[in-house]
Design a protein that fits this description.
It is a single chain. This protein is an alpha+beta fold and about 130 residues long. Helix content is about 40%, strand content about 20%.
């Protein structure tokens, strides 16, 4: 949390940043361990970066869970670790300029949760029918 706002922090040991959750619409802070480099990606850019992908990392919905490559993040590099807080505050403020994008991520999350609940209920009924549950 920064000033009451959630922030996702990831450490990348290799060139891939795993389990990026654009649907949260929060800044992504990445520490790239091999070079000791920090990146702060505003939420709207997280969405922009994952949007073209055909599917998510572990699922069909790209915004729920996706991967990014460190080489995609160059424009978000933080020159000095001392600047991390300021960069994160800037990222939080910058994302507020895109309320429709945030609303769409909230909608995607709501719909994904509903689909999960509905599917689970239907599957439980089928399992019960076949005496598997």
């Amino acid at each position: 949390m920064v000033d009451g706002s959630p922030v996702e922090v990831k450490k990348a040991s290799k060139t891939t940043v795993n389990q990026v959750r654009a649907v949260k619409y929060i800044p992504l802070v990445v520490y790239y361990e091999p070079s000791g480099t920090w990146y702060v990606v505003p939420a709207h850019h997280v969405v922009r970066l994952v949007a073209p992908k055909a599917r998510g990392q572990h699922n069909e919905i790209v915004f729920e869970c996706s991967t990014l490559r460190v080489n995609q993040l160059g424009e978000f590099r933080v020159a000095k670790e001392a600047d991390l807080l300021a960069a994160t505050r800037f990222a939080i403020a910058a994302a507020t300029k895109y309320p429709e994008l945030k609303q769409e991520m909230e909608r995607a999350l709501r719909e994904a949760r509903k689909l999960a609940r509905d599917t689970q209920a239907r599957v439980q009924e089928i399992l019960a029918k076949y005496k598997l549950g």
